[in-house]
Every structure is written in C-alpha cells, then in structure tokens.
Amino acid sequence: MKFAEEVVVEEFLPTFRSMLAEDLRERGLTQSEVADALGISQSAVSKYAHGDVAQNDRIRDDERVSRLVTEVGEGLATGSMSQVQALVEVEVLIRRLEDHDLIAQLHEEAMPELAGHGGDFNVHDPDDELRATERVLSSMRRGIHIVEGTSGFTSLIPAVGSNLCESLPNAESIDDVAGIPGRIFDVKGRATIPADPEFGVSAHVASLLLAARDNGADVHAALNVRYDPDIVARLESAGHVTAEFDAEYDDLGEAVGTALDESPDATVLYHTGGYGIEPIVYILGDSAEAVAEVARKIV
Question: Where would I find the HTH cro/C1-type domain in this sequence (predicted)?
Fold first, then answer.
C-alpha cells in the first residue's frame, strides 16, 4: 500500500527542490544562501547540485512545475516572496496535481488497484485566506522593491509621508489592507521603508482605497504622493483618468463617491488641500506593484 503523500515526498519534492536549487544557483546565490532560502542543509544543496538526488522526468518536464520553480526562484532571490508564500504556492500546486492530475497518475501507477478512481485528494482550497494574505504581502514587497530602486522617488513624497497599500479581494476594513508601518519618508535623499508590510497599519491611505472600492472602483492598491499640477498632468499624459475631491470633507466615502460619480474610470484621485491639510494625489491600481510602477514612470 502506497499513499499519495509518499509520491509527493519521494518523487515530487526531491525533483522540485533540485530544480529550485539549480535555479537559485543560476541566479548567483551561494550554496549557503540557497540552503537558507530552502531551509535545508548545505550538504543537501550539494547533493542536489551534483545530481546525487533522483529526479522524476515527468515532474521535471511538467510546464506548471517549471513555471513555479521560476516564480519561486525569482521571489526568493529578490526577497519579494517569503518562505511562507513559497510554501503556500508549492502546496497549492501539489494539491492540484493530486486532483486527477500528474501526482494522481503516478500514484495509480504505484498502486494499480486505484486505476480508474483518479486519486481525488483536493483537500486544500487554492483561494483560502492564507494564500490571499501571502499574495498581497508578496505584491507589497515587490512594490516596495520598485520604490526603493526608483531614483528620485523622494521628489514624490509629501510632508506627511507616503504609504503603499494593497487590500485583500473582499476587504471590508483597514485590517484587510496591508501597508507600510510608519509610512515612507525621505531620509537624506532616499526613500526609506521603516518596516516590512503588515495588515491594519495604514489608516489614511487604506481608508481612501476602501472608499474608492465602496464606490465602485475596481482597484486593490493605492499610493499617495505629493500634489503638484505638473504631477497630475504627467499622470494624465500617461493615460490615467484623474478626479478631484474636496479635502475638507465630513465623510470621506461621500467625497470620493462624488468624484467617482463624475469620473467613474478615474485611477487617480487628488485634492488641493485646505486649512491645515496638505494637498495629496492618490494613485490607484490593481496591485501595489502596479501603482509603484506608475509612480516610477512619472518621477
């Protein structure tokens, strides 16, 4: 009697780890760095590197496996993907391959008595909360990487600081929105990120994002930058629809809703300030990575 889990442990994982170790080494990581990234010993990495670990060719040649190796390798190498996110993505692929797919087929071959049953072991929901949360945090890290690597980004930071936010698909409150604790500030000419992204740490930009979503905007991320007519003009020249709202609002949702009623396709909201209120531009988009890229292009 052989369990599907044994196929995963004895055939899938050695193959996947070998491919991932090879990918990371090709990206320039040392043997020690690869070991840290994969949570294994350096001697294990050495075995993978020297081909001392048997691989399953059918798993290695599967396009989905190859694609995930590339995605995880890039994420771990650049720091845009956490080990938890990598684990979740691999687990999801494993469960899919167990569900009437490659692992189920290998299992049937090892256990001919299962022929015709298909080995339905789809016990993990690919869209569960953990995966959604890790996807958002991964996107945030990629967005932060763009911000940190953008020369001149500090020219966009308002006096109150910038924040980059991304929401869960069904976000209802700021606790469902990831942001940067302490905001992004200009420290000696460099955009400084004080801490890793977390959920529930951005009240202002997260509230604006939620207000836009509540009023029909199909967006999941936001970044605030300083207001300047030239910045608004550059965003418009780049193809973004802009909409102005009143800075001295009593109800943010109502103010944003009025602006979106007039310009429902707006992906840039801004106000020109008020008494004691700094003027601000908010860039909206599908992901933290996407809005950071928009900001990069207008610097």
Answer: 20-48
